[in-house]
Amino acid sequence: MSVRELVVLGTASQVPTRRRNHNGYFLRWDGDGVLFDPGEGTQRQMIHYGVTATDISDVCITHFHGDHCLGFASLVQRISLDEVPHAVRVHYPRSGQSYVDRMRRASIYRDVARLTLNPLAEEGVAFATANWRLEAKRLDHSVECFGYRLVEPDQWNVDGDAARARGLVGPAVGALKRDGEARSASGELVRLDEVATLRTGQKVAFVMDTRLCANAFDLARDVDLLICESTYLHADVDDAHKNAHMTAREAAELAKASGVRRLVLTHISQRYRETEPFLAEAKELFEDVHVAEDGDVVVLPPRRE
Fold first, then answer.
1. pLDDT top residue among 38 and 168
2. What does each C-alpha distance from 41 to 15, 17, 59, 123, 226 come to in angstroms?
3. Would you kindly state where each structural domain of the chain is located, as residue ranges?
4. pLDDT (mean) for 268-296
5. CA separation (Å) from 125 to 57, 149, 150?
């Protein structure tokens, strides 16, 4: 059975608080698991909230401010300690290669981790499997920062009865899927959309540490789930822009304009003790919004019909 959900490991901005650990977001996607921005303490949070090192197939680091990456050092050691049997892919800005190298060798340990490093220098498709692709685009932060977008391709589902009624069987059905059309035994040309329905693939975007910018809208376009920084309330918008961040209102604007289905707000500044104002501010513009707390599990909305 496929599981697609976000496990929130940490939600703090810059420094942890009594209630919030540094960043950490684990996306369960069927048999894969994508860990975004493992900040300090991520290993402990994984234990608290039921994520194992073996669950991780990919690590995506947006940028190399400490609250988004310092947990990578201990994570690599945990991958080694648990002798994770598969290679773990690590995606990150190439400009931070020296930080990756130093964190991987931060202390003495028996290094048996199988890591496949994927430093990013260009925007576009960062990686692809048979079932999904990872896209990356630069954001507008104070240092080089990439946002990520996980996309499941659309898929045609052929109605077997409809295909047989049109005289398509065996290899002809394969040709129909491959070429978009095929000839029946009687020579009739049948188009794919005449006997199949298109299942829209699900999409998730991770937009962290940025001002509003064109690439943020590109990443968020038509996604089922948007995990978005909302470091400030809009009353502090000047501070937000000065520090290259967004407000809860701006995150809601992004979600509304981009056709997002569900919005998760996170990366909350330590200056705010309560999150209810974040929820209220965002809901003025966008209805399906969740302000993340450490340990939350957020499921993707049902698949679009």
1. 38
2. 11, 12, 15, 30, 24
3. 4-154+200-299, 156-196
4. 97
5. 17, 9, 10
pLDDT (tens digit per residue) in 173-226: 888 888 888 888 788 898 888 888 888 999 999 999 999 999 999 999 999 999
For residue 124, give both structure tokens. 């576009």
- 67 has catalytic annotation: yes
The one catalytic residue in 67, 140, 209, 224 is: 67
d(CA 24, CA 42): 6
Architecture of the 4-154+200-299 domain: 4-Layer Sandwich (3.60)
Rounded to the nearest 5°, which phi and psi values hold at 186? -90, 0
Question: Shortest CA distance to 132 belongs to which of 158, 155, 157?
Answer: 155
Tokens 């999904």: give the residue: 132
Give yes or no for a contact between 134 and 149, defined as CB atoms under 8 angstroms apart: yes
Whether the per-residue pLDDT at 305 is higher than 70: the answer is: no
The H-assigned helical ranges of the chain are 42-48, 71-81, 97-104, 160-165, 171-179, 192-195, 214-220, 237-242, 248-258, 276-283
Residue with tokens 């954001």: 139
Please, are residues 177 and 156 in contact by the beta-carbon 8 Å criterion? yes
Burial of 283 (0-12, 13-18, 19+ CB in 10 A): middle
